[in-house]
Amino acid sequence: MECRAREDVVVPVKRIGFLSFGHWTPHPQSATRSASDVLLQSIDLAVAAEEAGADGAYFRVHHFARQLASPFPLLAAVGARTSRIEIGTGVIDMRYENPLYMAEDAGAADLISGGRLQLGISRGSPEQVIEGYRHFAHHPAEGESDADMARRHTARFLEVITGEGFAEPSPRPMFPNPPGLLRVEPYSEGLRERIWWGAGSRATAEWAGTQGMNLMSSTLLTEDTGVPFHELQAEQIRRFRDAWRAAGHAHEPRVSVSRSIFPLVTAEDHAYFGLERRSTDQVGMLEGGRATFGKTYAAEPDELVRRLAQDEAIAEADTLLITVPNQLGVDYNAHLLRSIVEDVAPALGWR
Hints:
Keywords: Monooxygenase, Oxidoreductase. By secondary structure, this protein is an alpha/beta fold.
């Protein structure tokens, strides 16, 4: 079954995953009161999501915050406990990363999961601390912005995960070397095609297309053109695909969008999210510029189907990431994902 987003773009049956920000707080009403809670529950939720028929488990990365921060141990653990779903990030802040060490971690996590890693990276979001990347010993070069530094780290990371040798071997190695220059190990074949760029604007989406990265677009865009959020995001996706084609990349790109979606099925659903029925797009300020924030979708399944069918960006994407309220616990979020997979997705042709 296929869903046609527009005349020249055929979008396959949707992959549906969850995106967890991994919040934790020492409060009696939170199901995640410690870093240990959120890490262990993230693994359990990934297992439950696979059992519920979802297709992906994605995790947000924030430094200096009571949230998930070090993704690769978590991704490896999820990969070891699951067998089918994609595992990924949305997104890793490349200002903080050592590209070669990250390549080793990513290769290991991908091999443990059997090639299911879908790694979302980007320049990152507003920080909890001032120039936190400097505490990680990363400093922009002279004349370079922090965004430039993130792209420089990205370029190096993309280079070294291709598997090409680049390091001169020692004439007196501890262990025998294969012939030629050496590469970062472990190397995981195919990982380069499973790197996504989290783009916050139309221009950064075009850049991602030229670089041959998949597009990951969230519930906010760092610009406002006066049109509804989903229309602006759909334009962003079309520009990305146009840039991809113009660059002449051999394989087909993937596109994901994130949404907050809550089917109101049980009394608990209504208690938590009934008031979100009236949610609308919002325009605000982010890092000194205007930004557009997408609305929350909350309604009974039949009404959700009607509303989601009108979302142009969802129609353009092949992957939909559901932002989950992780502090409500594994059982509730497994119920949420099951409701979307069983009560909403089939009516939209996503299953």
